[in-house]
Structure formats: structure tokens, C-alpha cells
Amino acid sequence: MKLLVSPSSIEEAKFCLDADIIDVKRPAEGSLGANFPWVIREIKKLAGTTPVSAAIGDYGPTPGNAALAAYGAACAGADFVKIGLMFNDKDAARDVIEGVVRAVKEPFPEKTVVIAAYSDYVRLGTIAPHVMSPIAAECGADFAMIDTGKKDGKSTFEFMNKEALQAFTDQNRSLGLGTALAGSLKFEDIPVLQEINPEIIGVRGMVCGGDRSTMVKAELVAKAIQMVR
Ligand SMILES: O=C[C@H](O)COP(=O)(O)O
């Protein structure tokens, strides 16, 4: 299980260099809010051989917008391009995922596409993670992810229990997809996450000390790395 940490700036990224994946985002623009291409570029330089991920946003059914943003993130240097589906329509999900996969993989076949659905999909009225995964697999994406869509401090574990997260991870494995789990995860969730054993867990609030709108703290990143490895 690898640790993905989400800094929101170049300054914060300096505290995340020992994580397995550095995930560039702009929390002020939503759960998977996109940061600027120059920030992705600078963090990629800073990261050296550590893979860099970039969130491109929480999207409605707008495949053109999503594909262009995905291409932009890949051109800026992201090794992982991550999109959230903030709508509930299977056909539209297929269009968005197809667009994003093609935009990234045609020029950069080695890059990784991550499709996120939200653990709080019922309250958001968005596509369920287990419905999204088979579509992501059919379209050639690499990872299916769960995150919380509304960042109000409620954790993914408040919306999906261990069994549901395990079923999602197993389903993805059988579809040939990797799994990333996130959503206000806490240090005390790490043992159960290790039992579920997704390929990646993603954190921000945990390494900010609980409030994801504050700065990432180097000592909390070190603690998370030590607990995960
Ligand atoms: O990709 C993972 C997210 O950045 C998780 O953020 P969070 O832990 O604050 O919910």
C-alpha cells in the first residue's frame, strides 16, 4: 500500500518529498480541485524520481473540458492524472472517462489515469464507486478511486464501511484496475486500510493535523510514511 500526499503549493510539496506519490491539487477549488500548470511543473522538478499526480477537478458531464484539462496536467508533468465524477449518469461517465484516457494516453501511454467517485455519493447524488469502476476499466483507465466529494470533515468510513471498501478494492482487482482510497482518513484508520490493502491511500487533512485548509506538516507526513511502510 502506497501513500499519496496532497500538497496545495510548492512550499507544502517540500514536506511531501518522501511520500510515494505527490498529488498536486488546489483544495480551495473542491475535493479534486486543479492547481495551476506552473505549480505542477515546479513540483515535478522538485519531486525528482517520485511520481507526481495532479487532480484536474470535480467534473460535471463535460468530456471536452475534462479531456483538455487532463492533457494539460499530463503536459505539465503529472505522471498520474486524476479526475472526480460529480454527476450521476453512466453514459456521460463513459464519455468523460474515454475523453480523459485518450487525452492522456495518446501522447503519453506511460502515464496513469485515475477516475474518482465519491464515498458520499448518496448525499451528493453522484455516480456510485462500484458503478464507475467497470466503466473506467472498459475505457482503459488504470485506477478507480474513492474520495469524499464534500469536504466537511466526514470521513469515507462514515459513508462506506470496511466491507464496502473491501468489495470495491476486490472488484477493481478483478477488473484489472488499481484502487486508491481517500477521504478525511485518520491515522487510526491506517491498520484497517492495511487489511483492505488498496494499492494507494490518499491523504491531506491527516497530515495537516486534522484541518485540510491549513498547511501540511512535515512531522505528520513522516508519521504517516512510517505507519504505512
Ligand atoms: O487525494 C486525496 C485527498 O487529498 C484526500 O484529502 P483529505 O485527506 O483531506 O480528505
Automatic annotation (TrEMBL):
SUPFAM superfamilies: Aldolase
Catalytic activity: 2 D-glyceraldehyde 3-phosphate = 4-(hydroxymethyl)-2-furancarboxaldehyde phosphate + phosphate + 2 H2O
InterPro entries (UniProt xref): 4HFCP_synth (IPR007565)
Keyword list, A-Z: Lyase, Schiff base
Record-listed E.C. numbers: 4.2.3.153
Enzyme class label: lyase
GO MF term (any one): lyase activity
Pfam families, sorted: 4HFCP_synth (PF04476)
Reported function: Catalyzes the formation of 4-(hydroxymethyl)-2-furancarboxaldehyde phosphate (4-HFC-P) from two molecules of glyceraldehyde-3-P (GA-3-P).
UniProt protein name: (5-formylfuran-3-yl)methyl phosphate synthase
Source organism per UniProt: Methanocorpusculum petauri
